[in-house]
# Entry
Amino acid sequence: MREEQDAAARHGVDRADELSSAGGPARGGAPRHRVGRRTPRTVVTARVVVGLASAAVLATSGVSWAAYRWITNGLNTSDALDRVGRNAPRHLDNSVNLLLIGLDSRKDMNGNDLPKEFVQDQLHAGSSDIGYYNTNTLILMHIPADGGKVQAFSIPRDDYVQTFNGDGSSQGHFKIKEAYSNAYTGARERLYRDGVRGGDLEAGSREAGREATLATVQNFLGVPIDHFAEVNLLGFYDIAKVLQPIQVCLKHPVRDRYSGADFPAGLQELNPKQALAFVRQRHGLDGGDLDRTHRQQAFLSSVTHKLKTQGVFDDLGKLRGLFGVVKKDLVVDSKLDVIDFARQAGNLTGGNVEFNTLPTEGSATRNREEVELVDRDKIRALVQAKIGRPAPSSSPSSSLPSSPPPSPSRGGSGGGPSSPGPESSASAGGFAGESVKEGGIPCVN
# Structure
């Protein structure tokens, strides 16, 4: 047991089935904003004990407990994984799977519209009615127990899959991005009928959306999810604002009136508005959403590279400045120790992360929408091969419709820096288009 706890600690996390460190009273009195259900008393007691132990460790390492309290105070946390974990695949080792969720919503945490001028002028993201509660970005990061290369898997948002609610019940077949919004809408209607209003109505509805997203991804890939972090468009903008300028590299010049992207080829520095346009553009790109996915991967690589080179991961004061701006837009699971994870995140830089985009089998029309068909068994096999886990067997309840023959690759290899940078499609091992290696400023389409 001690070896397992030490292995988990090296990754800055506590596993759900081991001793867990949570927010609120368990953080030595530093409250967090809890967005899920009420935690049982026995769990709270255990977290208090672990919180006190964590305080002792921090004290012996010279970390300011006051600064720690400040960072975690007001952080939005969720218990969505508690329910979803009951149906999770079994863990085979001490590796950690973290799901990054980008919410395509023009709403704040209370469900209020973001200011119209801000959405249109700064985000260049159209009306507050667009996006609803769909997930625009889903990236699963697999952190191996032995400290080896981290494998990250981007899931195209239009993948047509069987979606699930948090309790394991099926929603039917939809785009994977719609699992969140489907559950949000259903929960909001039920809660409203029960007399829930205001912030509680929004929080409960979003918690159902998170549970559905976690359950759907977990079933789709056949791997357990240990932790997650969710951010919306405003949160993305705020992150870029703190870290600006953001360096990116493009293989070709682009100009797109929809996203506002207007960039020359080559290495360049972006302000927050430009950074959002960079990751949102899909019109005018040969690969469409596939190229946008690679943009998101490249942005994450650039951000972590900058945080590493500026020493943010090793400086609690700098972490405090970063979290002071973004924590209002961020939701993390209640068992994620953000300080520990941020400190360990420095070990994930320097070329130690590889981003892979899951393949699709061609476009089709389902539910009167254009979707991307997928071969779930093929995707599971690809993921399992990368993380060294046997692929789970298929079950009739979660099988997907037959897919047509694969369409031609939409990624393109193109030119660009040889290191660090993307690999060609031919060496992507069955994944879609290019894989992007973290560790610098990758050049993408």
Notes: The mean pLDDT is 78. The first helix runs from residue 2 to 10. DSSP finds 13 helices and 18 strands in the chain. The CA atoms of residues 50 and 116 lie 44 Å apart.
